[in-house]
Amino acid sequence: MSPAPAPGAETYDVVVAGGGPAGCAAALTLARAGRTVLLADAGTGPPKVGETLVPAGRVLLGDLGVADRVLGSGHLPCYGNLSAWGSADLHAVDFINDPHGHGWHLDRRLFDRRLRDASGEAGAAVAEGTAVRGAVRQPDGAWALALRGGTGPADTGTGGERTVRCRWVIDATGRAAAIAVRCGARRRVLDRLTALHAPLEADPGDTDRRSLVESDEDGWWYTAPQPSGGRLVAYFTDTDLPAAPYTAHHFHRRMLATRHVSRWARRHEPTPTPLAAPRRAAAHTAHLDRVYGDGWTAAGDAAVAFDPLSSQGVLTALYTGLSAGRAVDAHLGRLRCGPGRVHDGEDSALAAYAHKVTAARTAYLRGHRFIHAQETRWMHRSFWARRLAGLPDSPF
Ligand SMILES: Cc1cc2nc3c(=O)[nH]c(=O)nc-3n(C[C@H](O)[C@H](O)[C@H](O)COP(=O)(O)OP(=O)(O)OC[C@H]3O[C@@H](n4cnc5c(N)ncnc54)[C@H](O)[C@@H]3O)c2cc1C
Predict the structure, then answer these.
(1) Looking at the predicted structure, is the pLDDT value of residue 335 above 80?
(2) Most buried by CB count within 10 Å: which residue of 93, 229, 261, 272?
(3) Measured between alpha carbons, how far is 24 from 322 in angstroms, rounded to an integer?
(4) What single-letter DSSP state applies at residue 98?
């Protein structure tokens, strides 16, 4: 498809594709820097439930000037983590020792919506339910972007199809990295981790505000209270392993065989009511071979996606979104748009951004190796043997 912008088409300095934490952090940063920004969010993808924001998240949200607004109400405090990892015994890490205080069990829908609202108040045009579908470079170096859907200010009421112009695109579309891949970047996928998750009914006696991780021979379990009531239970394993409990019966039976998670399951569901079949979500480690190119920059999961065991996904999305916003602003300050575009100096801001992403990924991979090396009870099982060998250099 080759969208040709109509005369007088909306024009922005930057279009941010994706209104999750990464896209919002980028849009907020650019709008505050005085750039004209369109934040387009498709609102698609699997629901994000049971997610925890680590205490340091408050610092980044503070840097974005939205900490109180975004965390003020609607989420549950997370006071620490319990884990049975490397042995069957349960160990507690209490956030009382964390300099940033407690973390949060997020209502992600609310969290993301507040971030988008804050972006709008900072001056970004926010187009809800709007997907960036096509991106074509124009002779003058600008992008013509095809948008579909829309209830936001950019909606023209034309059945949801329109074209806008911009100088730069930020790809914050999550794991799909929809724009960057279209621009020729390659996504490196390092494992086959998948999440199977199901809700547990609310239990008024359940006041534990900690999350719990428990390993078993083919993966690991996770449970956390949900702000909407009840708990989420998730099992993480590799998609190609026969042990993956895809049916309600298998999931339930396997959950009840755990030592610790089963206590929550029995508490919430004293009679073994069959759960709904668990939903699936991709949870693999992945990154792009480059996080920027001519006219585009990737942030958040689009740039680098982590194993949820790290609990670093939202934090990293905010960090890379904010950093990408700053880098693109600095870069646009040096870029003259016009026929035969001229770069006034090198792409140092974007190169520095790429280094930050690489540093975050390197730290994550080190942590991933370290944490998995602590679980040695099932080294003969594929899930653990793969992780003890380290994530492969060559992608799947
Ligand atoms: C099972 C599981 C559990 C997790 N648990 C945690 C946790 O406890 N703590 C934590 O910190 N992280 C956790 N994560 C990771 C976390 O969900 C992600 O790291 C985070 O959501 C990344 O934010 P993002 O803004 O990059 O992308 P996303 O949050 O995925 O947002 C992308 C947005 O882009 C939109 N979009 C997609 N395509 C287009 C398009 N073409 N045009 C416009 N918009 C588009 C989507 O609708 C979506 O709103 C977990 C992940 C999984 C899979």
Answers:
(1) no
(2) 261
(3) 9
(4) -
Among protein residues, the one whose CA lies closest to atom 33 of ligand 1 = 18
Q: Note whether 195 and 281 are within 8 A (CB).
A: yes
Highest CATH level, class, for 53-105+192-283: alpha beta
Determine if ligand 1 sits within 6 Å of the CB of residue 42.
yes
Percent of the chain whose pLDDT exceeds 70 = 89
211 C-beta closer than 6 A to ligand 1: no
b/e code 286-306 from CB counts within 10 Å (16+ = b)? bbbebbbbebbbbbbbbbbbb
Closest of 190, 198, 220, 223 to residue 280, by C-alpha = 198
pLDDT at 374 over 90: yes
Given a contact cutoff of 8 angstroms between Cβ atoms, the answer to whether 386 and 369 are in contact is no
> 11-51+108-189+286-371 falls under which CATH superfamily?
FAD/NAD(P)-binding domain (3.50.50.60)
Entry pTM: 0.93
C-alpha 307 to ligand 1 mean position (Å): 12
